[in-house]
Amino acid sequence: MTTTTEQPSGTEPPHVFRDAMAAVASPVAVVTAMDDGHPHGTTVSAFTSLSLTPPMVLVSLDNRSRLLALVRRTGRFGINVLGAHQAELATAFARSGPDRFDGMPWSTSQGLPRLPGSASWIAAEVQEYVAAGDHTVLLAHVTAAEAATGGPRPLTYHQRSFGTHTPRPV
């Protein structure tokens, strides 16, 4: 099922909204998919857990994304939640071009590309695609999940730069 959303009249210009969202710290991940044995991936900061029972995630991909077209064909994707030490990896997968995996170490898990050293790994199957402006939201069932032992601090994106979350003592 696909739901279409319309732009309400009187909304803020895109640059004002972009500036407001820069104040929100977001986790960073590389979403991946496989196409005829070739890995594909892109950096995202719009993803989150959606449900515990059943386990589900939400990922947002640009409508022009080649990865979105691939996920529509396969119905599956992986989420490599990046650690604070992986900012260069996030930048590499954020750039345009088909060669993002060139020179990158990777393996397969659940038949999907997996990046070593990530804070956590999730494999998911799409249940629903929701049209949302210039993006499509993927609502997906989690088929596998794993957190790194002693996990690294998460990579976050805030005020247009990468950083990390530092826990406050309780």
TrEMBL record:
Record bears the keyword Zinc: no
Record region (Disordered): 150-170
Superkingdom, natural source: Bacteria
Gene3D superfamilies cross-referenced by the UniProt entry: Electron Transport, Fmn-binding Protein, Chain A
EC numbers: 1.-.-.-
GO terms for MF: oxidoreductase activity
Flavin reductase like domain residues: 21-164
Principal EC category: oxidoreductase
Name of the protein described by the UniProt record: Flavin reductase family protein
Native source species: Streptomyces galilaeus
